[in-house]
Amino acid sequence: MTIVSQKEKLRKAREFLTRPGVALGVGAGDALCAKLIEKAGFDFIWSSSLCVSACYAVPDANLISMSQYCEAARSMNEVVSIPVVADCDTGYGNANNLMYAVKKFEEAGIVGISIEDKKFPKDNSLLEGGRQELAPIDEFVGKIKAAKDHQQSEEFIVIARVEALIAGWGQEEAMKRSRCYAEAGADCILMHSKAKQPDEILEFIRNWDHPAPIALVPTNYPSLTRKEVEKLKKVKLFIYANQPMRASVKAQEALLEEIKREGGIHTIDPMMVPVSHIFDLQGIPKMKEDEKKYLV
Ligand code: SPV
Ligand code: MG
Known about the structure:
It is a single chain. This protein is of the alpha/beta class. Helices cover about 45% and strands about 15% of the residues. The protein has an eight-stranded parallel barrel with strand order 1-2-3-4-5-6-7-8, surrounded by ten helices. Strand 5 (about 155-160), helix 7 and strand 6 (about 190) form a beta-alpha-beta unit. The longest helix has 20 residues, at about 245-260. The protein starts with 5 loop residues before the first helix and ends with a helix. The structure holds sulfopyruvate (SPV) and magnesium ion (MG). Sulfopyruvate binds near residues 48, 125, 219 and 241.
């Protein structure tokens, strides 16, 4: 892997928010997945709270700690040369917790964080019947200011994620909150929706008249494609938040079933990559080159 400095990653990420077109991010829960996302040619990694918590097989409900989320994001960042944006839930508590998190994630080489305007501890936004309690606007504005005032690098990105549509509070509330957060200094507004069609998202985008760019997570409304989003101009980050994890669970379940059914591992080769492929992803070729130089 070519070594890319944090400065270069920050510069690239900033460019995503200003250049024409849409940057595509994909959600990862671990470094191996992040590596696959980079190899497939996507623009950035979304260190997803859903995927990271799923790697521990625990609910996406702030059960694991900020340090665990940060370590997961750090491990991703260490093996890719594209930027890593971290999904930091509600900031792990109040503004004090968030300021500490900004320090830790920035030190880990992360180019930006997303924080959402729900109460801590949160539930996953797509969870049927989940607690989707919104934080008061002033409280969240305080968090955005705290994050922006405490970032070390000027380019570090703070994404304010608006959960008003998720909570069922409607367009007006979503718009009011987005304006307040953008005015408070958020670099980007992530408008989340769990609707099965993109209509409410498209309505929001039509009415959005602030220069702050928009980020979208189309998990529940997959009919909205990159091509259509590009035409909307105001959307700069488009995030496929969890598809590799869901595909790999499906593949692993099918494989385990097959082994059980066949009473052995003699039929499953076509379902797997060879071990050599894993070696490549682990960076063995580079290690062997280094050995030639440095081992006597
Ligand atoms: C995540 O990927 O963890 C997200 C997106 O926050 S969602 O799961 O839709 O809440
Ligand atoms: Mg999340």
